[in-house]
Amino acid sequence: WLILDDFIKIPIGSRRIKVGEEKNNFRWGIGYDNDTKDGLFITRNFDPIYFSNKNTRLNIKKELYLQRLLKGNTESFSGKYKPVISEKVKQDLNAFDYLGIEVDLFTKLYGFDFQSNIDLNSLDIEKFKKIINAKSELSKLLYEEKGYNSTKNSKLSFFGAYREKIWNGSLGDIEILSAYGVKVNKRNNWIKNNITKSSSIAVGYGEYQSNKRFNTEEIINRKRLNIYLERNHTYPIWKPNIKDYYLKKDNKYSPNVIPYGLNLYAQSKLDLYRYDDGNYQNLLTLRGGPELTLGNFKNKFFDYSKLSIYPKATISEGKSPFSFDQSIDNHAIELSFKQQLIGALAIQYSTEYNLDINSSKYKEFYNSKYEISWNRRAYNLSLYYNSEQETGGLNFKIHSFNFDGIGNKF
User: Fold this and answer.
1) Beta partners for residue 294, in sequence order
2) Start-end of H helices in 97-179
């Protein structure tokens, strides 16, 4: 049994649990995805399967589509003789459409880390190309350095995907029918003069197959070179002295001491895209604003509030031949607010207000996410819903202690 607060008992069976792999410990889950699973569904996880002296791990999750079962039809697939990523239409079900499966594979190959995810939102093999989503990555850490206030690393990755979904603002979810290529990424994180900084430089090259810009029926193939640079700064404007950074008995609702205060966040991103048909995009994005945190999350009522307001603007030049990476919604304000209500109960709301006069969502709130959570020092339970993507679910997280081994008595 998993026992929470000496009160809630959750049966997890006779098993050995390693801290850090909590996501595999729970048999049942619930989720909501209107686009690919027709609404509400439940999941059941199986025990991880290990091979080759535990260097290879296979996770299997089975899904039952409750809302699809109750409706008696599906709107998750394109028409029978239509391309895979064409507009989805209402269709009759067969017995194989009630179930789905998701498989995660992790292994090591000649010094590389390999991970792959395969998701089937039906078991009807006759429409195999329309039910499968797959994504794989073969990666190797080329360099890593850790200091007292800094970390550096460089990573080489080979990637491949089939029917990967990309969220592109007011255009919604765009499917990449297939993609494969290589990328190199260098990341730095450091703190200097109380200013938290990070930078990222990446170069990627690959071949992509997706729908033509603003045309869901025409599929095109293009090679793409992408050079990406990002810089982030967090400036402390008001930083009260916290007397004790160690958790005490009254820290009941958070796994860490709340670093309350006022910070100013600033981000700059440069994306350079070059396509083999002569098209190109040059994108410079500036984003930043205040983040205010109040309270300690210790008292029973309204003792924690967090508000962030991030205006952003993108200066764009050129056009993409695709929809999935076409610059859109170039001016907006990102808003996020989290508030403790009573005890461990808190609510959170995040959204974007569109200020791009050329966008179909001009002067509208979009990409809104609602969340209600039960927060404890040792775990977190949250129910969320994204109104734009029509997805939601129930998350359960155990706050672990970076502990692996027997250790000392305490």
Assistant:
1) 305
2) 128-131
The model's pLDDT over 292-329, given as tens digits with 9 standing for 90+, comes to: 999 999 999 999 999 999 999 999 999 999 999 999 99
Decide which of 215 and 37 is more confident. Answer: 37
Task: Assign 345 to helix, strand or coil.
Answer: strand
Conformation bin of residue 111: beta by default, left when phi > 0, alpha when psi is -120 to 50: left
Q: Is the pLDDT of residue 407 over 70?
A: no
Distances from the Cα of 402 to the Cα of 56, 259, 398, angstroms: 22, 20, 12
Q: Summarize the confidence of residues 124-131 as an average pLDDT.
A: 93
DSSP string, 230-276: EEEEEEEEE-PPPS--S--TT--S-SS----EEEEEEEEEEEEEEET
Strands 391-398 and 379-386: antiparallel
What is the value of pTM for the model shown? Answer: 0.85
Asked whether 31 and 41 are in contact (CB, 8 A), the reply is: yes
Q: Are 273 and 226 in contact (CB under 8 A)?
A: yes
CB of 320 closer than 8 Å to CB of 136? no
Which residue matches tokens 């499968």? 132
Q: Which two tokens stand for residue 263?
A: 């910070």
- For residue 108, count CB atoms less than 10 angstroms from its CB and return exposed for 0-12, middle for 13-18, buried for 19 or more: exposed
Q: Pairing state of beta strands 56-64 and 99-109?
A: antiparallel
* 287: pLDDT strictly greater than 60: yes
The whole-angstrom separation of Cα 5 and Cα 183 is: 45
Radius of gyration of the chain, Cα coordinates, nearest whole angstrom: 23
Rounded distance, CA 133 to CA 101, Å? 11
Percent of the chain with pLDDT over 70: 94
pLDDT above 90: residue 106: yes
Distance separating alpha carbons of residues 170 and 329, to the nearest angstrom: 7
Residue 19's identity, in one-letter code, is V
The mean pLDDT of 130-139, rounded to a whole number, is 96
- Tokens 């990666």, located at residue: 139
Q: Cα(247)–Cα(244) distance, rounded to whole angstroms?
A: 8
